[in-house]
Design goal:
The protein is an alpha+beta fold. It has 31 helices and 17 strands. The protein binds a DNA duplex through helix 7, helix 11 and helix 14. This is Transcription factor E2F8.
Length: about 850
Amino acid sequence: LKTPLKQAATSQLVLTERQPDCQPLTTPPKPKETPPADPWTPTSNLKMLISAASPEIRSREQKRQLSDSSSEVLQTKHCLQEQILGDEYEKSQPSRKEKSLGLLCHKFLARYPDYPSPSQKSYICLDEVTEELHVERRRIYDIVNVLESLHMVSRLARNRYVWHGRHNLPQTLQALKKVGEENKYIQQIQMIKKREYEHEFDPDSERNEEMASSFGSSEQSEMSFVELPGVEFRAASVNGRKYKSLRVMSQKFVMLFLVSTPQIVSLEVAAKILIGEDQLEDLDKSKFKTKIRRLYDIANVLSSLKLIKKVHVTEERGRKPAFKWTGPEVLPNTQDTKLEATSTTCSPPISESIPSKEQCSKALFPSKGKQNFTRHSSLIKLVKSIENDRRKIQSAPTSPVKISASTYQSLPVFPNTIAQFPAITKHQLEGQSKTAEEMQMKCALSSPEAVPKPEPSQQPALSQPLGVCPASHSSVSPVILPHPPSGVSYAIYLHPSQAHTVTTYSPGFMLQPLPCANVTGIKSNNSKVLNKVTTEEGDTQRGTEEPTKSLAAEERLDTKSETSSQRCLKRSQALPENNLIKRRKSDEESLDTSLTFFPSGYLIPLTHCTHGNKAECSNKEKAGVCSLQHTAYSSPITGVIPMPASELKTVNIPAFHITPLNIMLSPNSIAAAPVLSNSCLNSSSTSSAPNPSSSALNFMLQHIGLIPAGVQVPANPVLQHVPVSSQSENISHSSGSTNVQEGKVSCNILQLDHGGLSGKYSAVVPLQQPPAPKEPQEPQAVTENFFRTPGGPNTEPSLSANSDGTQRISQGTLYIPQRKLEVSED
DNA sequence: ATCTCCCGCCATATG
DNA sequence: CATATGGCGGGAGAT
């Protein structure tokens, strides 16, 4: 018995690993696509099993499986066979495993090709699926929801979905990564770990609470769904509203992987982050448990997609279940050429669609009654106000807002109003297509115009200032983007509250250049505690930031003195078209802000579409949209503003600094960063320190002393990828502080965090990396770092606001102890 | 005992 | 109102 199981496991692993490459040994080169209709039904399987499958059959199965990557299935089958054979098939009662979501998902996936040809769209009828797979409908929803979050499917109407396969995956992941960076997940992860650490020592740390609260909170909780351009949710029905929780959760979960360096995320951490996380002390046990359950559900689907695999992280305390990203590395957007490659599919951006007001409205999030998140008392007030706003918003026609990624930033909530929206929205709406819609919505919120468009695709181009990008609208086409895309644009749906925020502030932006400061302030108010967050962010982020930082740094350099606000102004001013430009800025700002908060939206990348898109946007729309998207792509989300390379590098940093929460940098910068440095950022977050201006380096150095982090080599992926740029390095990351060292490679990296946004650079030290090892095998040692502040637990760097609104973080030193973690695979 | 996570009740959303 | 969707959490199988 056992043996078989083991085998199965083994085989799975093997298969899994192989598959990626595809064709490994066994796998016949089947086209990725699986024949759509595969007959694999449970029944068929049984039959086969029962019959003891002839070799032929088996081989066939294997092929399929392999191709499908349903190694599991095979395993299962084997098991079944044995059992059955052994005893007559006593009905194999399907043991629980046989009914697992993962297995079901494999079956589901086996029915559709990974890369369906654009020409032939495949539709999914839930009724058929449930029947064929013999499962309860509820289960299918779980699968579909996760797939939707990755834009592998999109809903058409009741009971009907369109299968997109993995065409959109690259874009989606890119967009998610961006958003994840914007959300400062890295920082959050670190905070959580830090907290844990502190708790250990001193159980009652109160202050932490605050931090925590600030963290996240409240706002975060809101969720937004990230959409891709082409893919949107069509069904009106589904789309807009409510239930997107699993989808959003799934996206966030994926973001965590993409952002953290070791690309290993423990369920515990993920759950905490996904929960609004006030967590802390509240220990809402039940809530936590529920979150974990959901994460398992999501993880099972992601595992079936081979995007992650289960591992265990062992720390001092014990062993914790975790998952490791095994999916494609996401390029940092940037640039690139790569992007294109990735996106291959997407050729034209598309646009799409439907911008109807309705959609917009749909987009709006319902206020949801529930929304309540747990919040700290302190936050409660905020929450209430926010909720009120939401209501208002909701009521408002346009409420749902989708914002472009960049927009979404705005998350920060502002209580204000929504009134503005409608008007804006319409304007925006006009031209846009769905994507547009989204954007519009967002735009509306933020600014009407806007949709942020696009950014030039490239960074370099991007860099240009806002001005460069034309706004989406009219000019749309503009510029840039020639290619595209690397950047992915995405739209996010915000909750009302968010919307508010956005709205509120956006207008201002739109209209006037907003001073960052203002914004900031606002955010701070609304958002949870920014300061804290900020601080943390700083710490945390580093890895990610680095790129960012670098960007920021550049910016600063560029602007240097300018504060973020100033920048904003400039940008805005710069923009001829204000709108566009403004938007971007605003977007950026918002992005920045968003960083602080997390968005909770569902992200939708605007960018290219894959076939899926509706390609047809009206011409105009398309043009606009497309262009937008492209443009956006670069920085849509973020701030969209394109910056010159130089800027990129530098710039971002400033942003961070500047605004604490509010202004953070946007993704753009981040995105850009990669380009700049290019290097390896694979880790996304990390890395790069390279370019950063000398100042940046100094920074880092300074910080370094402060915070040593363990470094880790990024997981394999990173290494591999990274060619490493000059820096090479490393990445530290810490995502939470865990560093994984893979066996072979050892790296030394120093991370620094420091507080504040500004600071986080991680410095890395050298790393030599051996060639990348690939999969580490099993146990890997991971190091975790915890922060410790010298003074005490809280000693983190504090932020102070500058007059301009920007905040600065003082650095505290953090000391991060490293722990070793071992990662073991199952 | 802990880790996973299936099952399915029941609130909501959609039509 | 009937369904379609999905949030949610009990509690049981797997380890």
